[in-house]
Structures are given as structure tokens and as C-alpha cells.
Design brief:
Radius of gyration: 22 Å
Oligomer: single chain
CATH superfamily of the largest domain: Glycogen Phosphorylase B
Strand order of the largest sheet: 5-4-2-1-7-8-9-10
Mean pLDDT: 83
Structural class: alpha/beta
Helix content: 40-55%
Shape: globular
Number of helices: 17
Strand content: 15-25%
CATH class of the largest domain: Alpha Beta
CATH topology of the largest domain: Rossmann fold
Length: 408
């Protein structure tokens, strides 16, 4: 079966493609999101372990020319995983496109790639097209003129874009009308999809899941603790979400400042990067906790299991969520969790942690877990839930079964 996946350049898409690449012919296509150099770096980082070979097509004639362009489509060839650029656009054209997910101009710019998607579909003639994230990829898939279309909602497409903007709700309804079926990681996303008119028998809940062989309680965090000068008896709280307003990392920092007054040795490990980093660094300085907060930045995914193993507790405080992979990976690593009760988070937290509404409640719950020595027991429950519900291999097999059972 030849599968065409339309989606953003992300680690999620890499893992998705990686599962199916061993069983089917996979075509992966993406369009430029903006002109930031970090996107090119993410491209390089994602495929660093299998250096791509760029072939002459549509102006790409050598690997170095790729550095000045943004890839729109790439083919992952079974076995070798070579990437072949299908279409490109000069990054200079992207500078006028707003860097906000909800911009009508940005959506219009992305929708302008519909002709290229249709051409790609005609040339490759895939058996199934799946649009990952409804805007623009689900929309592009739905209007690609292909007969067998699937869409995947990730969370913010429904819980943020559709909540605030009527034109996204209108487009979501069109996608639901045209696709064969829709899937998403949580029942919360299904419920909202049904409100927008998606037939109940068209939506399937399939979490992304975590690699349980990679993320496990048996991992050692000694190397990470040594790297950051953290003694074995020091409690470590970890956050893995992007440093963006949606994820309220400031609430975590303010909550940690309260925790530190009660547990002076405690450390906070903040992974990832984002637009809020400068503000967060200033906040730590103003609160007098800079020496106890480690901003580790974006780390290679293969190192994440060891950062989690070096930690005692996972925290997050998003204002909106589908069901984050980072939460599932933390649970698979045997960590208790404290999180805001939004989206699919309520489906993941069941006896393995607590909910919090603000930094005060977050501090209260973190202190309860750490001072009552509850972390190990709650962590065992987290691992059990991950094994039951968030095994990536099992969940990807469910997706493959869905493709076959649905006559695709």
C-alpha cells in the first residue's frame, strides 16, 4: 500500500512515518511554515541519523542548495529512507507570512499549495492520503481530489483554532464531510469534533503513544544528574512543553519558587525552547531561583528518556491540550504527574498524580507528592496506565488495522 502523509516537519511525523515505512511505501509531504532558520535546523536534526541524498528535481541539484530553500515535499523510500525534494520555494518569499497559527493570511498562503498537492497526488497515485493536523494539512488532503482521505487532529487545531475562529470551524466541517474517517489522541477531541458535525462513527480515538522500550523506569538518570551537578537525594521536577504562552511555563516557575521555600534543595528542569524563554529567565532571576532552574533547551529525543529518569515528577500547565506525547512518555518512564485538567489530560491522570489550576495549586500538589514520598507509588501507576493505553507499537498497529478494516 502506498501512503501519502501530509503534515508538519516534526518529530511526531517522523515517528509516524517510521512505523509504516517498514510495511508500506510512504510518501511524506510538508509545506514551509515560516522563514525561521530553526525550521531548517529541525529538518537536519530529525534526519541526522540517516543523511539524506538530494536528487535533481525542481531546482534541487545538490545538498548545499537545500540550505537556502524550504522543502515542500519529500519522499521517504523504503529501505534506504533517502529523501527526494519534490517542490521548493525560496525562503525569502516567506518573510511576509505572519508567524501565527490563527492568521487568515497564513492559512491562505498555505492553501495556495493545493495545486502542488494535487499534482503530487496525480504523479504518485497513493492508495491513501492522510492529513495530519487539520489546518492546512487536513484541508489540503480533503480537497486533493483523491477518493480515500483520512485526517488526524492533534489538539490545538480543534481546541484553539476552531474555538476562536469561525472560518476554522467551517473548514473543519468540510474536512469531516470529505474524509473517510478522522482520528485523534483523546476522547476530548472526539467530543469537540462531534460538536462540529463529525459523525460519531467517523472518529476513532488512537493516542500517539510512547515507545515503552525506550521510555521505562529502568533507565538511569545518573549521567544527567552528574552533568547538571544534582546530587542523588535532590528532588527534580521536569517540564518538557514548549516555552510558549499556551503552555504557561511561567506558572510552573512561580509554583516551583513556592516549592523551593519548603524544599530548598529542589531543582526544576525545563526542556524545550520558545518565544517565552527571555521572560522566563527574567522571572527566575526576579524570584531568586535562577541557580535552581536548568534551561536545557531542545535536546535530542534519544536523550529524553534519561532526563526523565533523572527526575522525580513531571509537570505541565497548558491552557489547552489534546493528549501530549510528552505526558505519555513521562508516564511510561514511571513518573507521577501534575497537570492542568484540560483536553485529554483528564484521560491520562487516574490515580497517578493530581490536577492543578494555577501555580499555587501546582506547588501544593508537588509538595504533597515529594514530602509524602508518594512519587514511586504514583509512578508505578503511571507506567501501568502507559502499558495499557499508550504503547506506541500497539496503537500504530491499531491505525494500520483501521486502514485495512475501513476498506482503504
Amino acid at each position: 500500500m502506498k501512503l501519502l502523509f501530509l503534515g508538519p516537519m516534526s518529530l511526531h511525523m517522523k515517528t509516524w512515518c517510521s512505523f509504516f515505512i517498514n510495511r508500506h511505501e510512504v510518501l511524506y509531504a510538508t509545506i514551509p511554515d515560516n522563514a525561521r532558520a530553526t525550521n531548517l535546523k529541525i529538518c537536519d536534526d530529525l534526519f541526522a541519523e540517516t543523511p539524506p541524498r538530494y536528487l535533481t528535481k525542481k531546482g534541487i541539484d545538490n545538498p548545499s542548495s537545500f540550505q537556502g530553500r524550504v522543502r515542500i515535499a519529500a519522499r521517504i523510500v523504503d529501505g534506504t529512507r533517502n529523501l527526494v525534494g519534490a517542490n521548493t520555494i525560496q525562503t525569502s518569499y516567506m518573510k511576509t507570512v505572519p508567524d501565527t497559527a490563527s492568521s487568515p493570511l497564513r492559512l491562505a498562503f498555505q492553501f495556495a499549495y493545493l495545486d502542488r498537492v494535487r499534482k503530487l497526488v496525480r504523479e504518485e497515485n497513493p492508495d491513501v492520503i492522510e492529513g495530519h493536523y487539520l489546518f492546512p494539512y487536513g484541508v489540503l488532503a480533503a480537497f486533493s481530489r483523491h477518493q480515500k482521505i483520512v485526517a488526524c487532529t492533534w489538539g490545538s487545531d480543534l481546541m484553539v483554532d476552531c474555538v476562536h475562529y469561525s472560518y476554522y470551524r467551517m473548514l473543519a466541517k468540510k474536512v469531516f464531510e470529505k474524509v473517510y474517517f478522522v482520528h485523534g489522541p483523546s476522547a476530548a477531541l472526539k467530543a469537540y469534533s462531534l460538536k462540529l458535525g463529525c459523525p460519531e462513527d467517523k472518529f476513532f480515538v488512537v493516542p500517539w503513544g510512547a515507545d515503552l522500550d525506550l521510555f521505562k523506569p529502568q533507565n538511569s538518570g545518573n549521567e544527567i544528574r552528574t552533568e547538571y551537578g544534582i546530587a542523588d537525594d535532590v528532588p527534580v521536577i521536569i517540564s518538557c512543553r514548549a516555552l510558549e504562552p499556551l503552555y504557561r511555563i511561567n506558572e510552573i516557575v512561580e509554583g516551583f519558587a513556592i516549592v523551593k521555600k519548603k524544599l530548598p534543595k529542589a531543582r526544576l528542569m525545563i526542556l524545550n525552547d520558545g518565544s517565552e524563554k527571555t521572560k522566563l529567565l527574567s522571572l527566575c532571576k526576579n524570584l531568586g531561583i535562577s541557580g535552581s532552574v536548568h534551561f536545557a533547551g531542545r535536546i535530542p529525543h534519544e536523550r529524553l528518556p534519561f532526563f526523565l529518569a533523572a527526575s522525580d515528577l513531571y509537570v505541565q500547565m497548558p491552557t489547552s491540550d489534546g493528549l501530549p506525547v510528552s505526558l505519555q512518555e513521562a508516564m511510561a518512564s514511571g513518573l507521577p504527574v501534575v497537570t492542568s485538567n484540560v483536553g485529554g489530560n483528564s484521560e491520562a491522570v487516574c490515580g497517578n498524580g493530581f490536577f492543578a489550576t494555577d501555580h499555587l495549586e501546582l506547588a501544593e500538589k508537588v509538595l504533597l507528592i515529594l514530602r509524602k514520598n508518594m512519587a514511586k507509588d504514583l509512578g508505578k501507576i503511571s507506567r501501568h496506565i502507559a502499558e495499557e493505553k499508550y504503547n506506541r507499537r500497539d496503537n500504530m498497529t491499531k491505525m494500520e488495522t483501521l486502514y485495512g478494516r475501513s476498506g482503504l
